[in-house]
Model the fold of this input.
Amino acid sequence: MEHFILISGCSGGGKSTLLNALRKRGFATVEEPGRRVVAAEQARGGEALPWRDMEAFLRRALALAIEDFEAAGTLPGPVFFDRGIIDALSGLQHLAGRAPEDAARLYRYAETVFLAPPWPEIYETDSARKHGLDEAVAEYDRLAAAFAEFGYRTQMLPKAPVAERADHILSTLQLG
Done:
């Protein structure tokens, strides 16, 4: 789906803020699956949380990312995703040494994936992000390798104000 644009990268790197800016400019966006899984699990007192049962959390995030992908087919393009299927697959591969890689072949985003780099100056923990920056950077490194492995080109987002980041993406995609 060439109009499905994935924004991934370092946890705490400003992806959700960027998606909000794109939404305000009138583009369709899909919120991060992991944050929605955490919110749902916390609301029901569940255990599929990254700090309790990482594998269950990643499996739920993967299922939700697939649902998001399928549901986004009805949205006018382009559609911007805050994380997606490869993010969950990369985590499962790292954690369990295996992942259902067929999902990466069945559900394809646009060839260029935008990566938010590690950005210590803006990194913060919160009720859904309890891990530290070192763990976020390690995840970023795994993701960069995973996207290359699955045939995506990655483009680093600049460490710049959110409006400049949004302009960068839209210019790269020749949308603005």
